[in-house]
Amino acid sequence: GKTTAMHALKTAWTKAHGFTLSANYHMGTKVVNYPYDNDGLGSVFSPSPDEDLLRVMSLTYASNNLPMWNSLEFPNGVVNGAAWYAVNGGMQDWNYRHAGCMEVTIEIADFMWPDPPASEIPTYWSQNQESMLSYLEWSLRGVRGVLRDARSGNPVAGAIRVEGNPHLAFSHPVAGDYHRIL
């Protein structure tokens, strides 16, 4: 139905744009959670092949947000998603597994409803501005290049893998450029 068609459109759009780094923002607590949200094991610690990298990226965000960093619930304001609670079909797992994009979920407030008054937006901005900028700097780290056809020299769609890590990074389907955060 309509939901399946929308999912297919989002999937195609994401793959066509070749994202390297992303985040999705929520409210409910103050924490950065990283993949996996579900590796088929239920609500238990479920590390991805990039566990150490994703944890450090998450700590980069949380360390610049004092209320998050000082969380009493989540040490240093970070958690493996499934260790907190399992989510089926989550965006960060899909982006990581199928689009080669490093993504985390960032929860910025200790409540979900009602929405905070507009007067609180400057507070959220000041708590998260440096965190956002520091997290975005990860997009500049790693290896990058262009995959080209050996005969024609034209860019090609493909995948690269870092030795010792099964997680793939994909080149842009038209331009052939890739970026693998390390």
Q: What features would you highlight for this structure?
A:
globular, single chain, four-stranded mixed β-sheet, alpha/beta, 182 residues, two-stranded antiparallel sheet
Q: How would you characterize the overall build of this protein?
A:
Helix content is 34%, strand content 19%. With 182 residues, the chain is of the alpha/beta class. Strand 6 and strand 7 (168-170) form a beta hairpin. Helix 2 (51-63) runs antiparallel to helix 6 (121-136). The longest helix is centred in the first third of the chain and has 16 residues, at 2-17.
List the helices and strands and how they pair.
Layout: H1 2-17, E1 21-26, E2 30-34, H2 51-63, H3 66-69, E3 78-80, H4 81-84, H5 91-99, E4 102-108, H6 121-136, E5 143-146, E6 159-161, E7 168-170, E8 177-180
Parallel strand pairs: 1-4, 2-3
Antiparallel strand pairs: 2-4, 5-8, 6-7
Helix pairs in contact: 2-6
Give a brief rundown of this model.
This protein has 182 residues and is of the alpha/beta class. The chain has helices spanning 2-17, 51-63, 66-69, 81-84, 91-99, 121-136; strands at residues 21-26, 30-34, 78-80, 102-108, 143-146, 159-161, 168-170, 177-180. The chain is globular.
